[in-house]
Amino acid sequence: MSIIPNKTFEDLEFDKVLNQISSFSITPMAKDLILDLKPIEEYDEIKLSLLITSEFKSSFENDNKIPNHGFESLNKPIQLLKIDNSVLDVESFRNIAHASETVNNLLYFFKKFKIYYPNLFSIGSKIELNKELKTNIDKVINRFGEINDNASDKLFLIRKQSQEVKSKISKSFNKSLSHYNKLDFLDQIRESVIDNKRVLAVKSMYRRKVKGSIMGSSKTGSIVFIEPEATYALSRELQNLIFEEDEEIKKILSQLTDYFRSYRYLIKNYNEYLINLDLYYSKAKYSTEINGIMPNISNDNKMELFKAYHPLLLKSNKTEKKITYPQTVFLNNKNRIIVISGPNAGGKSITLKTVGLLQVMVQTGILIPVEEKSTICLFKKILTDIGDNQSIENHLSTYSYRLKNMKVFLTKCDEDTLFLIDEFGTGSDPELGGALAEVMLEEFYNRKSFGLITTHYSNLKLLANELPFMSNANMQFDNKSLEPTFKLISGEAGSSFTFEVAQKNGFPFSLINRAKKKIENQKIRFDATIAKLQKERSSMAKTGKSLKEKEIVAEEESSKLALLNSKTKEKLIRYQELYDHNKRMIIIGNKLDEIAEKYFISNKKRNMISNVIQLIESENSKRKKKSTKEIINVQKIIKLTHQEAEKKFKNIKINKKKGKKLKEAKPLIELKVGYNVRLTGSKSIGTIDSIQKNKAIVNYGKFTTQVDLEKLEYVK
Q1: Fewer CB within 10 Å, N- or C-terminus of the chain?
Q2: What is the rounded CA–CA span in Å between residue 552 and residue 639?
Q3: What is the reported pLDDT for 676?
Q4: Which residues contact 29 (CB under 8 A, 6 or more apart)?
Q5: What value does the mean pLDDT of the chain take?
Q6: In Å, what is the CA distance from 436 to each residue of 135, 403, 407, 432, 466?
Q7: How far apart are CA 436 and CA 427, in angstroms?
């Protein structure tokens, strides 16, 4: 069970986030639900809520837009359906029909686009698709909210009779109107309507001469409104029919209500489904405003927030067109507590609030403004002590109130706790308060709690430096302008820049020197050392940034050169291939020219055809030698020859030392078709076209010749 006290929500201003989310709600029911939101306890429910919100957000950016989910509350008809003999009014039935149609459209849509919205589909997968509810309502009530004439046979008959009576009344009234108008008994307006009845506008002086029922008079009394005697009886008949119609409508609605009583739970499901959908819609709309995403949810104690923004500050600064500075914070089992130091107005408190608020938002199923690679874990307890906590009601000072709050921390802090404390230990004597704060921080550390604290106390900075799973961090300050950069630097403590800030604000230099003499030299040296380290850190960061930029430029140039080199190599290969091809074509052309010349001289076709076929076979044998297998064999032979040559060279050197002369022996290589060879002692190189018994046909380009194999030697 999670324990997040109301004080945490107040310190982090979580209610403002909920108010901003609720402003996007379409229905007042969802708005009320959002304002009462609290962190979810189950891991799976948190993850599902984040996934659904993320899917809804994605629907704003793609073509598969989710249909409208607006509806009127069904709470009233749901409650009435519980009561026997209750009757729903027309408006309730119309709301049910509309909700039924909306839900069915949504369920059909999510089923169709299940691949895009799997989690939105899952929350409605158990709701029954039912079109009968709307169909049955439409049979009784039309789109104008009126009962249909054919809702029952009796109603149809009553309304038919009513129309006939109304027609008679109209004819009778028109007859009386014409008669009395000719007698000049009527005023200029001639007629009016009272209680849905047409009446004659009779001049008061003639009221006794007109037979009928007086219905009223004008303000001045000059006109008397009379219902003619001829229409009076018909009007009573019409009133009876209207009464019968009302009774029949009540009966029809009662029967329809009884039919719907068995669908009460389905209607309840419709109501809850649409409210929840509006809730997720509101969260999704809010996430688009703050660029919220779903971070990775870790089962381990691991928090990695990259470029995390405070959502309230982000929205406010967007409105005012100001810059919002993000923070990057890491917490894990090897770095459980971070002690943040640095000057005031540098952003320490905002960093605490950012981490705390984003943690609460995630555990409430709200997307947060961080980079996509961010990871967050879940905590059962989130405790905060941020801001001025003076209790006027209990007459407690700030320090007394904070001690009381720390007592609560000590009773609840464990390995599942995230604590956030601003200005830890302040409000008392620096040495005494600092010592007590150090003891409490050690206790939180020993309980394996996770947390962030801000402080100016040097002993807490030293403690963070000494303990292995605690670290220092500081809010960076520009060492030249002495203005905050709102950037959190991990790994080192921060200086308060007390005297530097005072000097910048025009504080007398003599007074600053006197103040320095009043405190221990060690404190001055310690704070100065930290300030110096921060300045060096800032300088190194700028140098690193410059080197990084140069490295990027160098990498780009290297990539360009590599690409140019690759293109040049490709061109050279193509040129070499073209050169080899052209050379080969010239050789073949020369051979064909020789064959043509011989044919011209001898005029012997057979010899010419034989020579052409021999040339073609010779070229085909050359193509065969390019196969992968033979290339590998040639490489092996070359390697073997090289090894044998090395051995012989060694033997020659040995024999020379002994004064012996050793004749070079031919390498014992089995010659094959396609090998390059030459006659022993010759420089001309040819290619073996064919081998028959111990003789080889060697092609020298312009001519071929038959040579004994033993007279040939292999050429690499």
Answers
A1: N
A2: 45
A3: 87
A4: 73, 75, 275, 278
A5: 83
A6: 73, 10, 12, 6, 17
A7: 12
**pTM of the predicted model over 0.70:** no
The total of other beta-carbon atoms located within 10 Å of residue 214's CB is 13
Burial bucket for residue 564 (CB in 10 Å: 0-12, 13-18, 19+): exposed
Question: How many other C-beta atoms are found inside a 10 Å radius of the C-beta of residue 628?
Answer: 7
Q: 170: which 2 tokens?
A: 């109209």
Specify the residue for token string 């040579």. 707
What local confidence, expressed as pLDDT, does residue 16 receive? 95
Query: Phi, psi at residue 65, to the nearest 5°?
Result: -70, 140
Looking up tokens 């064999």, which residue turns up? 633
How would residue 360 be classed by pLDDT, with cut points 50, 70 and 90? Answer: very high
Give the DSSP H/E element, type plus range, for residue 81: helix 75-82
Question: What secondary structure does DSSP assign to 249-280, as a single string?
Answer: HHHHHHHHHHHHHTTHHHHHHHHHHHHHHHHH
Structural class in CATH, domain 6-130+263-290? mainly alpha
For 236, counting Cβ atoms within 10 Å of its Cβ (0-12 exposed, 13-18 middle, 19+ buried), the class is: exposed
Give CA separation, 695 vs 316, 411, 684, 690, 712, in Å.
97, 104, 18, 9, 10
- For the chain, helix (H) and strand (E) counts, in that order, are 21, 19
**Length of the chain (residues):** 716
| CA 680 to chain CA mean position, Å | 79
Residue indicated by tokens 């029909």: 97
Q: Distance between CA atoms of 219 and 590, rounded to whole angstroms?
A: 131
Distance between CA atoms of residues 77 and 385, nearest Å: 47
The whole-angstrom separation of Cα 463 and Cα 441 is 9
Q: Are 234 and 168 in contact (CB under 8 A)?
A: yes
> Given this chain, do its domains 6-130+263-290 and 298-518 carry the same CATH topology?
no
Q: Is 302 exposed, middle or buried (0-12, 13-18, 19+ CB in 10 A)?
A: middle
pLDDT in tens, 542-592: 787 778 888 888 888 888 888 888 788 788 788 777 877 788 788 888 888
What's phi and psi for 685, nearest 5 deg?
Answer: -110, 135
Beta strands in 450-553 (DSSP E): 450-454, 470-477, 484-490
User: Residue 305's pLDDT band (boundaries 50, 70, 90)?
Assistant: very high
Nearest to 260 by CA among 105, 70, 143, 130: 130
pLDDT of 464-474, one tens digit each?
888 999 998 88
Token pair 């109107």: residue: 177
As a whole number of angstroms, the distance between CA 128 and CA 104 comes to 9
Going from N- to C-terminal start, the domains of the chain cover 6-130+263-290, 164-241, 298-518, 622-714
In this structure, which amino acid lies at residue 154?
K
Query: Can you tell me the distance from the alpha carbon of 450 to that of 337, in angstroms, rounded to the nearest whole number?
Result: 5
Q: Which residue has the tokens 């110096």?
A: 532
What is the rounded distance in angstroms from the CA atom of residue 294 to the CA atom of residue 360?
14
Quickly state the pLDDT bin for 256 (edges 50, 70, 90).
very high
Rounded to the nearest 10 degrees, the angle between the axes of helix 430-446 and helix 398-412 is 20
Residue at token pair 């003999």: 85
Q: Which residues contact 120 (CB under 8 A, 6 or more apart)?
A: 52, 55, 56, 66, 110, 280
Amino acid at 640: L
Q: What are phi and psi of 346, to 5 degrees?
A: -100, -10
Helices marked H in 151-261:
153-182, 229-261
H/E element holding 203? strand 197-203
CATH number of 298-518: 3.40.50.300
Structure tokens at 60: 């704003």
